[in-house]
Amino acid sequence: MGRAISREAFDETDLATSARRLREDLTELARVLVAPGFGQVPPTVGAELEFFLSSRAGRPVFRADAVRTAVADRRLAPEVSQCDLELNLTPLPLAGAPFSAMSHEIDEMLDRVAREPAALGARAVPIGSLPSLTPDDLGPSALTALPRFLALERSMADRRPTPFTVALPGPEGRSLRCESIAVQGAACSWQVHLTVPPDALVRTYDAAQLATGPVLSVCGNSSLVLGRRLWHEGRVPLYERGFGDRAARRPSRVAFGGVGTSGRAYDLFAEPALSHPVLLPASSPAAASRRHPHSGLPLLDELRVHLSTVWRWNRPVYDPAGHLRIEFRALPSGPTATDMAANTAFLVGLTARLAADPGVRAELSPEHAAANFYGAARSGPDARLWWPSGRGGGPDRHPARVLVPGLLPYAAEGLDLLGVDPRETGRLLDTIGRRVITGMTGAVWQQRRLSAQERHADRTTALRRVTAEYAELSAGGAPVHTWPCPERRLTLRPTGPKHDKER
What we know:
Blueprint: H1 12-33, E1 44-54, H2 64-71, E2 76-78, E3 84-88, E4 92-93, H3 98-115, E5 123-125, H4 147-157, E6 164-168, E7 174-178, E8 190-196, H5 201-217, E9 224-225, E10 228-229, H6 235-242, E11 254-255, H7 265-274, H8 301-307, E12 311-312, E13 314-319, E14 323-328, H9 337-355, H10 358-363, H11 366-379, E15 384-388, E16 395-399, H12 400-417, H13 422-438, H14 442-453, H15 459-476
Parallel strand pairs: 11-12
Antiparallel strand pairs: 1-3, 1-4, 1-5, 1-8, 2-3, 6-7, 8-14, 9-10, 13-14, 15-16
Helix pairs in contact: 1-7, 1-8, 3-9, 5-9, 5-11, 9-12, 9-13, 12-13, 14-15
């Protein structure tokens, strides 16, 4: 949910001052982006893991503050709801085996949460949406009582009626009447950060937009949301509509976004910043003059706080330590550390390779990228995705389960460009390949296990059992494609777009 602030309420004067400072920060950013040497750092990768707290019986546990206090590790951060926490992983150089190191850090920290006696039986569950959560669980009392979340609650209430309606599509789609932004606590993501030099930001951002759909199609993990069967990634419409203050002639604050058509890194920041009114002013009265203690660069607090309230699924990040990043926000939490490491390797590798391939980028439009993203969120491996056919004449639509295996060697080339150890690349991309062969994503597993449980129990009991079983398997660490499940898919037709006969 972004940067901390120190106040819960703001008046019109505060908002006007913030809007003025925002424009000043953008002017300063334009100077920083062209400063000699800025952002010239070796490529690194980092991540934020949002996870749920659950009892061994599969019920959500609302003790995030107590768990964070007990574990006493600065890497743990609060989230919008008291049943969620966020783990900020250590950024690592991409050269070598960074994804294995990330996996080990996740396992170590989630195990610490589970072993902490003060957690009173709560265990960490990395999943896109906890199946046993209900709408009644996420009212105002579930909101984390920190100034940022309380101020967001006030600001959003000023822009839409309360209670507000959230329409969730899917096989069991429903409309919820919600009283608090705490409903966003039903969505947990795995957010990846990749450092990028300023002169490569636009093409890498465009590549990230194109890579997101194919990757998301084979890593869905949010198909049971607030008691209903929804999209493979039901987290996506929940987040978009839960923070949707869409006004006439203004884009939604939560959206997939476009591409950097101007070719200027500055515009990737300015467009979202100027498209939305300020929700949370930066609290410091001297924000405009503050500088980083080591780099000496401006903090640009007003810009950074404001952009933390414009939730694009991929977005650029200015870090006053001296670099730019792309934040990939579309991937779900879980199912295991190994799965998340594999998803990250596929996404980063595919992005890097696309960034180096202007021919492929030229064949796919922003509309293709957006259609792929929402198609993947809706249908997972059964999505039909736009991709160049290799024959000329424009892109074709390919089933994701056929397209993705053909993209794995392409992603491996991208990881090689970044200096990733080939053994790391091979092991993790093989995990993706095996997931496609079995057809077993976290989303598919959840749906099938719920069907099996409902043969013997009512929906509420079945959802708790699915949650408890998922948590056990996730803690075991074996990737999701190996989990026991009814009706597993065991075969796949030949892979690659050239074999697609369904056009």
